[in-house]
């Protein structure tokens, strides 16, 4: 596996600012076959992945209409998957046995390897390392400033929410303390029915 030339802070921002540093991964055989077939106006892709939504739909139909309908849908799905796999296999065999395949594959891989070698050379060229480090430091400083600004905005928002709540609740508390209190019906001094006898 090829390691990236720049591994420092703000890696994504540095690679966006210096696109020459981005290392390209070598494509798989299937990826190369897809590109080769596209050059020959054949647009097929290898089958793969599971269609969860389709499986859920077939399950719902099976539950609603019975096992026979669900079984037929399952058979039809398997037939389509088999047909797609056979189509991909035949086109892949055609591409791999084509007279231009080896030259195409070598040219694509060579182009990626050349790009990656240029990225390493660019990283090690005079002044570039310093420019990258300066850009990374500036980006870190900007991100730190933005983080502080966001934190201040958050605490201001919380302060406004708490202050607004207090302003809404404070008048209700003042009104309760200023209003004359009426004697409660549970007050034992006014209740004649609760007499305590001492022996």
Please explain how this structure is put together.
This protein is mainly alpha-helical and about 200 residues long. It has one domain. Helix content is about 70%, strand content about 0%. The chain has helices at about 10-15, 30-40, 50-65, 65-95, 100-125, 130-180. The longest helix is centred in the C-terminal third of the chain and has 51 residues, at about 130-180.
Supply Rg.
37 Å
Low-confidence stretches: none
Structural class: mainly alpha
Report the principal-axis shape.
flat
Work out the oligomeric state of the chains in this entry. Answer: single chain
Strand content: under 5%
Briefly, what is this?
The protein is mostly helical and 199 residues long. It has helices spanning 11-17, 29-39, 52-65, 67-97, 101-124, 128-178.
Features of this protein?
single chain, 199 residues, mainly alpha, 69% helix, flat
Topology, pairings included?
Blueprint: H1 11-17, H2 29-39, H3 52-65, H4 67-97, H5 101-124, H6 128-178
Helix pairs in contact: 2-4, 3-4
């Amino acid at each position: 596996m090829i390691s990236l030339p720049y591994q420092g802070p703000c890696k994504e921002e540095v690679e966006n600012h210096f696109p020459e540093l981005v290392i390209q991964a070598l494509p798989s055989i299937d990826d190369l076959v897809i590109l080769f077939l596209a050059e020959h106006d054949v647009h097929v892709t290898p089958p793969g992945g599971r269609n969860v939504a389709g499986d859920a739909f077939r399950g719902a139909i099976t539950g609603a209409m019975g096992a026979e309908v669900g079984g037929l849908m399952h058979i039809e799905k398997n037939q389509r998957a088999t047909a797609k796999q056979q189509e991909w296999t035949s086109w892949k065999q055609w591409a791999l046995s084509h007279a231009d395949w080896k030259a195409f594959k070598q040219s694509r891989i060579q182009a990626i390897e050349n790009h990656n070698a240029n990225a390493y050379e660019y990283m090690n060229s005079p002044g570039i390392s310093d420019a990258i480090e300066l850009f990374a430091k500036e980006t870190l400083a900007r991100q730190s400033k933005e983080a502080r600004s966001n934190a201040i905005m958050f605490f201001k928002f919380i302060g406004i929410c708490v202050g607004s709540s207090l302003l809404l609740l404070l008048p209700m508390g003042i009104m309760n303390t200023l209003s004359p209190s009426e004697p409660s019906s549970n007050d034992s001094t006014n209740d004649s029915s609760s007499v305590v006898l001492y022996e």
